[in-house]
């Protein structure tokens, strides 16, 4: 059996940047939570994405949770949430005892459909916040979404967990809304083994998020708490990995694009295959190369054929409104997210893949069309 090809696995820098920062933390005996790596990672990250301030946290999920809290989302508040996403986008709405209303995607972005969003505002004008996702590194239609949300004066949270390195009209995704969140989970474009970042133009809100994330300890010598706290901070070791990974983000984006272009050349002409959309405003990070197949070869045929060759692949995210846990909540849209789920294939997009690996994937899939 040939070596396994992964969907997207951790890829440390060839230069060993991560270890330098970790070593520094060890040498100064400062592996405790917080410390220089955390402070510097926040600053370097904010500069990289062009945001005013950033809070390094234990996960992307924690960042969404604190963004909702910072947005003032409380019990029984309504939050609009893109349906086509990973459950981590929606779970924190429930942590806050708020009520999600799931919004459909469109075919031009695979992300939140502005028309469905407008329709949701008509039904629920009292909505407190909107969570828009930039799936697979494709930017949502931020011009339209921001215009609609500003008109209704509602807080916008961008889930950019999959889109670090993606630009929309030359600006980093995650910096259009009031809050942006990023993830450094093991499968993301850069990783710290696990972690997240909350960014905002509003420095005061970010300072507040850091306060909540460190158990809401008041300024007092004794342990005093006037607010509910969370243990959501990133550790100084983890932040060291993040500083190292940030240095090679552009390299990783370039490789992801190379992978996408390779697949598009190899598979783009097959009957009924369409690659994920890219409009002229969007400069994706191509986190996962994805496509839809609408003909007689089904996604399940592709998953099975690849698995038989020891190659990992996945369906597109199953929409939240189809999830047993979330199906009781309202969905607004026309079922585009369902179609993308039924017909979608995420191809292996591991940045350690060689051309030989890529050819192995392409040939395995092409064979299904020759049967
Ligand atoms: C990975 C991911 C998250 C959660 O990030 P964690 O760091 O794993 O908590 C949230 N949203 C989306 C869309 C993701 O892909």
From TrEMBL:
It comes from the Bacteria. One of its GO terms (biological process) is polysaccharide biosynthetic process. The active site is at 188 (proton acceptor). Gene3D superfamilies: Aspartate Aminotransferase, domain 1 (3.90.1150.10), Type I PLP-dependent aspartate aminotransferase-like (Major domain) (3.40.640.10). CDD domains: AHBA_syn. GO terms for molecular function: pyridoxal phosphate binding; transaminase activity. InterPro entries: DegT/StrS_aminotransferase (IPR000653), PyrdxlP-dep_Trfase (IPR015424), PyrdxlP-dep_Trfase_major (IPR015421), PyrdxlP-dep_Trfase_small (IPR015422). Keywords: Aminotransferase, Pyridoxal phosphate, Transferase. The modification N6-(pyridoxal phosphate)lysine is found at residue 188. Pfam families: DegT_DnrJ_EryC1. Transmembrane segments: none annotated. Its cofactor is pyridoxal 5'-phosphate. Belongs to the DegT/DnrJ/EryC1 family. PANTHER family: DTDP-4-AMINO-4,6-DIDEOXYGALACTOSE TRANSAMINASE, TRANSAMINASE. This is dTDP-4-amino-4,6-dideoxygalactose transaminase. It comes from Pseudogracilibacillus auburnensis. The lineage of its organism: Bacteria, Bacillati, Bacillota, Bacilli, Bacillales.
